[in-house]
Amino acid sequence: MKGLILSGGKGTRLRPFTYTGTKQLVPVANKPVLFYAIEDLVEAGITEIGIIVSPETGEQVKAAVGDGARFGARIEYITQDAPKGIAHGIKIAQTFVGADKFILFLGDNFIRDGIVPQVNAFRDGAMHAQIILYKLDDPSSMGVAILDDAGRVTRLVEKPKQFVSPYGVIGIYMFDPHVFEAVNSIKPSARGELEITDTIQYLIDRKLNVRAHLLTGGWIDTGKMSDILEANRLVLDVLGARNDGQVDSASIIEGRVVLQSGAVIVNSTIRGPVIIGERTRIENAFVGPYTSIYHDCLVQNCEIENSVVLEQSAITGAPARIADSLIGRNTEIARAGGRTRTIKLMIGDYSKVGI
Fold first, then answer.
1. pTM for the structure as a whole
2. Do 116 and 228 sit in the same domain of this protein?
3. Which residues 6+ apart lie within 8 Å of 175 measured at CB?
4. In which residue ranges of the chain is pLDDT below 70?
5. How far apart are the first and last CA of the chain?
């Protein structure tokens, strides 16, 4: 069985971060979202993995992931020349997949508890396809599955305008080679893409065995800032404490805190769950619960909580506590000089600031 991860897409909901980087490399608890997908596949015994990348961000993904050896996997890269849909990603991976069953994992999906049970059921069963569902009050922004009494999938509806089912289809799919007949037969939708819902419906209409697994653990589609913060909370909730850094005698560490190699805490309070990245310095500061600060950052003379800070950023002397925030890489936030209370900012297009 092989793995296929989609790591293209423009990530418009995470701008301005995705102007300069791919959304799948935004960190959750100091680990890129994409790495969780790779680790989930390897944990399920899948070590031959293809990653579909775009021409714009493919080199970033390759530089971050490499050949897969660090994950215990062998990774091959497949370039999708334009965002033509999830099913198009399957279509261009046919040579890589061959005659094997495979798991399709959208690289911005995050499942806290992994996919081992679902993969084992698909590997050992007689299913032609398996989709993973998540019960929601309002799944109208995604594909929705309708099931019969035996749990077989009878119909998929993409972004229904009226309520038809509470079961949203999340971005992890399992297929045998019959799927290639589907992706080579369906036509592009009105938005010019080969849709995954049309692909699965093709299999259903031909009476193939399409089953569903209802997920009960934590799942997030990390497409927006609020999603990144929620996924960060899910990971920090189960992260064990570890100290590979340095803490001076004037500092207080409370709760579950991870200090990665080279992290330095000076005259500060860290209240977990928190993770502080490699070579990051926290000085005269308060870092509150559910905060992840990535590597090579400086947090000084300020307070921050429930936030994610990307690498090589500096927050010094912010005039108020920072909360519920996603702060990009190589960012500087500082108190402006002068006698008046002033906030000085430089922010990108499509950003949001609450003051």
1. 0.88
2. yes
3. 90, 101, 102, 104, 128, 129
4. 9-21, 336-355
5. 51
Per residue in 84-111, pLDDT (tens digit) is 999 999 999 999 999 999 999 998 888 8
Q: Are residues 129 and 249 in the same domain?
A: no
Q: From 107, 94, 113, select the one nearest 65 (Cα to Cα).
A: 107
Write phi, then psi, for 130 (nearest 5 degrees).
Answer: -135, 130
Q: For 227-262, give one letter per residue: b (16+ CB within 10 A) or e.
A: bbbbbbbbbbeebeeeeebebeeebebeebbbbbeb
Residues 96 and 123 in one domain: yes
**CATH number of the domain to which 331 belongs:** 2.160.10.10
Q: Beta partners for 326?
A: 308
263 in a structural domain: yes
Say if strands 281-283 and 264-266 run parallel, antiparallel, or are unpaired. parallel
Residue-wise pLDDT tens digits, 263-286 = 999 999 999 999 999 999 999 999
Same domain, 197 and 248: no
The CA distances from residue 319 to 8, 260, 285, 303, 315, in Å, are 38, 28, 12, 9, 11
In angstroms and rounded to an integer, the radius of gyration of the C-alpha atoms of the chain is 22
Residue 71 resides in a domain: yes
Helices of type H across the chain: 17-20, 33-43, 58-65, 86-92, 94-97, 116-124, 178-183, 196-205, 225-236
146/152 Cα distance (integer angstroms): 9
Structural domain range at position 250: 241-344
Indicate if 158 and 304 belong to the same structural domain. Answer: no
How many domains does the chain divide into?
A: 2
| 66, 87 Cβ separation under 8 angstroms | no
